[in-house]
Amino acid sequence: MALDLLMFAALIAVILMGYPVAFSIAGVATAFALIGWWAGDFNISLMGALGQRFFAVMTNPVLTAIPLFVLMGVVLEKSRIAEDLLETMGRLFGSLRGGLGVSVMLVGALLAASTGIVGATVVAMGMIALPAMLRNGYNPRLASGMVCTAGTLGQIIPPSTLLIILAEVMSSAFQQAQFKQGKFSIETISVGQTFAAALMPGFLLVAIYIVYILIRAALVPGDAPAMRETAARPKRAEIFGAILPPVLLIVAVLGAILGGVASPNEAASVGAVGAILLAGYRMGAPRWLMIAGAAALMLLAVAAGSAPVRLQRSDAGGFEYMLAAIYSGLALAGLLAVGAAIVTAFRRGVMIPAMAQTLSVTSMIFATILMASFFSLVFVGLGGEHRVAAILESLPGGPTGALIFAMAFIFVLGFFLDFVEISVILLPLLIPPLILMGHDPIWLAVLVAVNLQTSFLTPPFGFSLFYLRGAAPPEVTTGMIYRGVVPFIGLQIFAMAILWFLPAIATWLPGMVF
């Protein structure tokens, strides 16, 4: 009996019926484990490994970065950083044809690198930028497509939850492939390598979108006219005031990871603390204290990294104790600033909703990952792993044909499933055979990431479409939103083709840094 194929089909059917994803995965896995046991196709003793699998997920240090990055993004979203960025960039580029669209893409890129939360970015721009574009005569379909697409940049420009999950999945698949090749001195793929690999493709996507908007504005001026509303161009101080804080946060987080100064977990904590200080700065906490606290923490990080203190050593002298006192003072200054920022955020009603949303998003992600581990255990026990490998190996075209099939399959599933479900259920089955066929795992990770990013745009279940539908003015219909994203889906496929033929775009930076 082909229970493995029936199991996968049943999962898609149950999810499409609208049941919660984690419960759907667990229910299908339980049902097919019992059916397989009854039919003699599944060894029920394999369920004994379930506890070990769950424990491995819960103790995985890489995944602990997820709640911290989510908190960073939610706090920045609640502190209304998007509004200032959109308003400033709109005034800067609005006098150009397509200038408001260019502003939306640039702000989307900045928010992607600082918050990484698709829903928050789409809703913010749908409520602020979309009405401004419509008032200035933009084609509603083009304006809707730009807002939806700019929001999805949070999945490909690091740091992002997708890239963290993908790094863990790709690393595990890479190790499996090496074991099957008889290599026991194995290599791994780190989150830092995945972030570095995705950085240039993310900027490539932003450039492709902007070029498309400018060309369309030149060819069809009525679709993206220059801004009619008179608004003074922002002064340099305004531009720097809006752009510099998120840029500094991005540099601190990504610089720490790519520079090897901090692990992803440590960099995520830097981002969360930085976001809290930035929120406090913007919401009325003493600005001098926020600046002093941020400076003290940065100085502490640099000094402690270059001159660490070990007071437990027997040869520790007066100089070490003096350094320890200085470090303690810097830590205290940073702690006071963070405490003041948190108090201010609580008083402004920001901190509790931010923590609640962080808990909700993190719980959903981890519940899905845990249940996907259960699903994959049953699927492999039913012989699904060998069937997937056999299907890929039997396809015409060898490794290239197998990769085209895998990318097409992921793209089609993106119409119906979320990126988390595809990442933790499908990719562990597809990726090891592809790596065994000789495909570079880092290049493969970026191709998959761009492909999964497209799933936020593809009707009928693209999440960006739903987010914008809830935030868009009544005159923007669902049909307009769906038609508006079609050109940008084509641009995504075009970007994947560029990465296919120019893999160095993805592999150059990781090779240089790591």
Description:
The protein has 514 residues and is mainly alpha-helical. Helix content is 76%, strand content 0%. It contains 22 helices and no strands. Helix 16 packs across helix 18. The longest helix has 31 residues. The radius of gyration is 24 Å and the shape is globular.
The main β sheet shows up as: none
Count of alpha/pi helices: 22
Rounded to the nearest angstrom, the distance between the terminal CA atoms is 47 Å
Number of strands: 0
Mean pLDDT: 83
Low-pLDDT windows of residues:
none
Strand content: under 5%
Helix-strand category: mainly alpha
H/E series: HHHHHHHHHHHHHHHHHHHHHH
What's the helix and strand layout?
Layout: H1 3-16, H2 21-39, H3 50-58, H4 65-78, H5 81-93, H6 99-114, H7 118-135, H8 140-152, H9 161-180, H10 191-219, H11 236-258, H12 264-282, H13 287-306, H14 318-347, H15 351-381, H16 384-394, H17 398-413, H18 419-436, H19 441-454, H20 463-471, H21 478-501, H22 504-513
Helix pairs in contact: 1-2, 2-15, 3-15, 4-12, 4-15, 5-6, 5-7, 5-11, 6-7, 6-8, 6-10, 6-11, 7-8, 7-20, 8-20, 8-21, 9-10, 9-18, 9-19, 10-19, 10-21, 10-22, 11-12, 12-13, 12-14, 13-14, 15-18, 16-18, 17-18, 18-19, 19-21
